[in-house]
Amino acid sequence: MLYLNSFTFPSEDVEYKFILGEKRTCYDSFYPFKILSKNMFERIDFELITILYGGNGCGKSTALNIIADKTQVNRDSIYNKSNFYQDYVDLCRIDVEDEIPYNSKIITSDDVFDYMLNVRNINEGIDKKRNEIFEEYLDVKYSSFQLNSLDDYEVLKKINNVRSKTQSKFVRENLMDNVREYSNGESAFKYFMEKIEEDGLYILDEPENSLSPKRQMELVKLIEDYSKYFGCQFIISTHSPFLLGMKGAKIYDLDECPVDVKRWTELENVRTYYDFFKEHQDEF
């Protein structure tokens, strides 16, 4: 489902007029002004999957954050904005094909890292609780308790219950909130699976971070399926050859001046991988 048709950033002339008329003179930076215009990046015409490609500093993350703010999609992590950020967003223009769904969101590397840290902290707490239950099991199982009155009956029941179970079974039954330990890559991929739903606009900023090549290929399949069958549109920044090779993706090369649409096999990063493996093909 196509929600955004196009997005227009202010041209170099529009930026110049704004800065010339700006009365605040105590700033030495007008970010995000002069970032995208330096390579004459003024307009994006979207497909179901649109990719912004380029090296560090080319402005692809800046562009995604501006699109996210202009479309007012949901955001988890705070984005550090400048004094002129909102002025720039106000100068942008969007052409909407259909109403943007409420569950649409931008997902950044910070969101994924925060999720992985939360999972790790939860598991650290569970590990501590697990050790406490281990100790309780041993204390109860090997206690020399004797029944002296009816008041001790519940204690005796607990002892008999413990002695009838293995240590692992006792721990599992008493650790109801046991969260499975995931690797960083598994946690990162699980995050995308939880956040991407049907019928939504999803803006993904370098989603390949923390994902192994295998997980990146699984994410590619997820994005392709959700764009084709489940009413989703994706706008992605990446330099991963796995994501760049997605079927039907429209790719803007932000390293070009002016910014140009290219096939994924024409991109410098992909060509570097190709040349490397071609040079070593006899070793496979």
Number of domains: 2
Alpha carbon gap, first and last residue: 41 Å
Architecture per CATH nomenclature, i.e. the level-2 architecture of the largest domain: 3-Layer(aba) Sandwich
What fraction strand? 5-15%
CATH topology of the largest domain: Rossmann fold
Low-confidence stretches: 175-180
- The H-and-E topology, N to C, reads as EHEEHEHEEHHHHEHEHEEH
Structural class by secondary-structure content: alpha/beta
- Global geometry: globular
Number of helices: 10
Q: Which percent bin holds the helix content? A: 40-55%
Report the biggest beta sheet as strand number plus sense, adding barrel if it closes.
7 strands, mixed
Computed CA radius of gyration, to the nearest angstrom: 27 Å
Structure in a nutshell:
Helices cover 44% and strands 14% of the residues. It is α/β, with parallel strands linked by helices and 284 residues long. It is globular, with a radius of gyration of 27 Å.
Characterise this structure:
The structure is a single chain. By secondary structure, this protein is of the alpha/beta class. The protein has two domains: 4-109 and 199-283, Rossmann fold (3-Layer(aba) Sandwich); 112-174, no CATH class. Helices cover 44% and strands 14% of the residues. The chain is built from ten helices and ten strands. The strands form two sheets. The protein has a seven-stranded mixed sheet, with helices on both faces. A hairpin with a 6-residue loop joins strand 9 (250-253) and strand 10. Helix 2 (60-71) packs across helix 3, helix 4 (109-141) crosses helix 6 (167-174) and helix 7 packs parallel to helix 8 (213-229). The protein is globular. It starts with a strand and ends in a 5-residue tail after the last helix. Mean pLDDT is 82; it is low at 175-180.
